[in-house]
Amino acid sequence: MTETPHRTEISLHAYRPEADDLRILLGLAAPVTLVQVGLMSMGAVDTVMVGRVSAVDLAAVAIGNLYFFIMAIFGQGVLYALDPVIAQAVGARDTAGVARGVQRGLILAVILASVAMLLLVPAGPLLTLARQPSEVVPIADAYANGLILGVIPFYAFAVFRQSLQAMGSVRPIVLTVLAANVLNVGLNWVLIFGNLGAPKLGAVGSAWGTSVSRWFLVFLVGGLAWSQLRPTLHPWRRDSFAWTPLLRFLRVGAPIGGQQFLEFGVFGAAGLLMGLLGTIAVASHQVALQLAAITFMIPVGVAQATSVVVGQAVGRGDPGAGRRAVGAGLMVVTGAMAVTAVAFITIPEPLARIFSNDVVVVSAAAALLPIAGVFQIFDGLQVAAAGALRGVGDTRVPMLLNLLGFWCIGLPVSALLGFPLGVGPQGVWWGLATGIGVVAILLLFRVRRRFGRSLRRLVIDDNDT
After folding, report:
1. In the 8-state DSSP scheme, what is residue 355?
2. What is the pTM of this model?
3. Which of 260, 284, 295, 409 could serve as 340's disulfide partner, Cβ 3.0–4.6 Å?
């Protein structure tokens, strides 16, 4: 099926998913979401276990982890370009295009990892410059440096994971992530608390455990999925190093990285604002953010599945299926996030106690969670819409919309409410909610506009059609 290149009038009915559309999306979204939750749970377990040490160690994990992702999130986002590139090649039955995509992803992963590792070195001085609590900075610095050895596998696993998802092979990823969680708990038990004769390292021990677990992720998924990955890695194609296709890949991926950086960065900036309000504010922010991040993995998983299904539909020349996949993704995230919103609003204190036994931290976190409940549905819609747009290679405009909504509106509202108006930590979070709402509305308008035009395969190599 083909479309004319001009804009066409597409009714909302075209986005209404049929039973098969929902089945296909959920069949991929369920395991992808499980993977997302599994990856996030590694960080959540770190938070839970370090939270039993002290509020200072908990705050150090919050700030150190924040610093890591500020430096690493852009590169991870660049590799999300594998979603449309490989999914569209799969839909077009272009095995050579799939292989080139995986190999170019690994080339870029090495480059991006090298940059991120260098940026992690000066964590301490930069956190001091950002006026973070003096008792927290040395531990956060050591925590960030403990993550350096895990940067290369962090990116390499992202390449294998995005590639396998785009190929529809998720089972090896699920098994790998489940096994890595077990390993991470064991390493934390030894390194955080000093069991089995190991030194008691507290927050820093969880960083070393995380780095080891990331290497485990790469080797295990590579072994379990070798039958699918081997044809993409051997033989190594000389044209994978060609500059023009690599630059085209970057033109798709860099805006995704920028979007990821802007979105994560605004929460990072909010965390730094919390640092100005004290250690308890940082610790409570980490607890509430960890809970919101876990529920956020549901729409992230659905968004990645939507991106793949849309990309495959575009690759095989079926725009109608692509539009219905968009509708299915938006429908699923709305229902899922409505449930989590109710939980955050009705039982915030029991949820906060999962991550800390400090009464003051729990009370402060419980005051933030209902605000997270308010923005749950909008958060789901904005990430699902971005995933749909990524499936057709539309990445630059969503990045600009994130800049407008989060940084030009949301963060200024956070600063205004948090400090001049004296609302404090809750004011910072109401600013975040405002930014999320604005971005969701803007991205939904963009989806309507972009999917009203022709849907064509991305051109990475000159023979892509």
Report:
1. T
2. 0.86
3. 295
